[in-house]
Structures are given as structure tokens and as C-alpha cells.
Amino acid sequence: MTPITTTRRPVLLGLTFLLTLLLCTGLAWAQQGHDEHQTQNDHATTVQQDVGHGVAAEVGAEDHAVTAEHGEEHGGEHGAEHDPYHLPNFVSLFFGEQLKGREAYLDPIFSAIIAVVMMVLLVNVASRRTDSPTRLQAAVEMIMGGLDTMVHGIIGPTGRRYTPYLGTLFIFIWLNNLSGLVPFFHASTSALNTTVALAICTFLYVQGIALKENGIGGYFFHLAGSPRSGVEWGIMPLMFVLHVAGEFIKPMSLSLRLFGNVMGEDKLIAVFVVLGAGILAFTGLPIGIPIHVPIVFLALLTSTIQALVFTLLSMVYIALMLPHDEHHGEAHAH
């Protein structure tokens, strides 16, 4: 078996994780700012509506506002910690007060934890690679060997140059998905911030490959549908618009698919954990029936499938942007 490619290039791992975390943190910051701005607008609208009423209406509105504000404060103190649709994690348990109102930053924190763990493990494997592999080295080589074979089948013999990024992408998403099944951990891929950041990384990577392999002229010629005949040149403006729209739809579909599936798994497990605890609530003890265990085993499978689907579609997008004549010629020659 050819030595694993990802461990030869730890710098690529670091750059990929850095870009992902920066995008994830930026999206979290933007979402937090949008929520605060929306809250301020709603409050201003409520005040303006209250001013338009009489004195009695103003008094009633003030009482209602005080009650609503008290409810919001009470919910803000306990909602994040006791949300029945999300299991508690160690960050929210120990740093809940510091994260109050900044819950969107929880996902970049767990992404960073997974990134550091993954980089330490892979760099350790690369630096201690031997002919008699350890279990960790054998596992990494098995994963990367399978991905490399898949890349060959979809992209062709030249696809090995893309295995480092695709392998990094798969392992990072896979570990993030599985971390949601670990007690007191959190799957950052259950948030749209993380999945959008990963999809943007893939989008930029694919477009960079397309520009490098096709050139600027060939890149726009490909987006125009590679017209050959007069009819194809006639519908070229329509094809260009459709292809450009498709390039932006691809990362949207990647992010929404991964986000929806992982979020659904986490919420389903959380609901069954609460249900299992509720069955034995009459005992007054902090125990419950683990009726969520079968779902956890199912989530192990679906978490792997979702990471594989994201990576597989990224391979397909790369293959579609490569020069078709050269790609098919090399594949047949091989």
C-alpha cells in the first residue's frame, strides 16, 4: 500500500483547520450580531407601538414588558443549560455564565478541540511511521487507503493530489459527528455555522482547482457549457447562468444536508434520554432507562455515512471541474 498522503503534509492540515475555524467563528459572530440587532429592532418596534396607545394602554404594556423581560431573563439563565433538545456539554456546564448570549461560539470551540486532537494524532502517526504499524497507524492507513481508492475511481489517476484535502475533510467531519455521541461533548456539525464553513472551504478549493487546471479562459468556457456547435453557442448565455447558479447551490446543499442529519440525530438522542429519565422520575433519583442506546448505534452508522457523502460529493465536484478530455483519456489509459 502506498504510504498515506495526508500525514506527509501536516501544513495542509493546519491551513485547512485554520480556514474552517476562521469561517466558523466569523459566521458565529455574524449570527450573534444579527440576533442582537433583531432583538433591538423588536424592542424598538414594541416601544413605538406602546407610545401610540393611551395612558391605560401604556401601563398595561409596561406591565406586560416587565413580565416578558423577567421571563426572558429566567429563560436565558436556564434555557441553554436545561434545553431538553440538547444534551449538556462540559463547556456549557463550566462556562455557562461566560457563554450566556454567545451560544453561537460553542461550535467553534468544539471544532477547535477536534482539530487539535486530529492534528496531534496524525502528526504523531507521521513522525513514528514504521513497517510494523501500530493500531492507530493501521487505522489511519486503512481510512486513507480506502479514500485514495475512491478518489482514483471517481477522479482518475491524477486524483491522488487531492487526497490530502479530501482525507482531512472526511476525518474532520467524521470525528465531529461522532463527538456528539460522547457524553458531555457536542457535535459542532449540528450547527449551520460549521457546515457552511466546511462547504465554503470546499467551494473555494474546487474553484481554485478549476482555475489552475483549466486557466481563466477554460474556466469560463466550462461554465458556459463547453459549447461546440452553433446551437450550443446560441444557448450559451442560459447555460452560463445555470452553471454559475449550480456552483453556488452545491455548497448550500452540502451544508444543509450535513447540518440537518447531524442535528436530527442529536435532538432525537436528547429526546429519548429525557424520556428515559422521565420514566423513572417517580423514584426521585438521577437515573433513567437508557432507551436511547439503539439510536446511538444507529447514529454511529449515519455519522459515518454523512461524512462519507460530504467527501464523496466533494470528489464529484472536483471531477466535474477538471478538463474532461484529459480526465477521460487518463482514466482509459490507466
Please provide a written account of the structure:
With 334 residues, this protein is mainly α. The chain has one domain (6-42, 99-333). It contains eleven helices and no strands. The chain has helices at 10-51, 55-78, 90-94, 106-127, 135-154, 163-179, 192-223, 230-234, 236-279, 293-321, 324-333. Helix 1 runs antiparallel to helix 4 (106-127), helix 4 packs across helix 6 (163-179) and helix 9 packs antiparallel against helix 10 (293-321). Residues 1-8, 50-82 and 326-334 have low confidence and may be disordered.
In short:
This protein is mainly alpha-helical and 334 residues long. It is 75% helix and 0% strand. The two termini are 18 Å apart.
Residues in β-strands, percent = under 5%
The total count of helices amounts to 11
Average predicted local confidence, pLDDT: 77
User: How many strands, what sense, and barrel or not for the largest sheet?
Assistant: none
User: Ends: how far apart?
Assistant: 18 Å
- Helical/strand content category: mainly alpha
> Over all CA atoms, what is the radius of gyration?
25 Å
Question: Helical amount among residues, as a percent range?
Answer: over 70%
The count of domains is 1
- The shape is globular
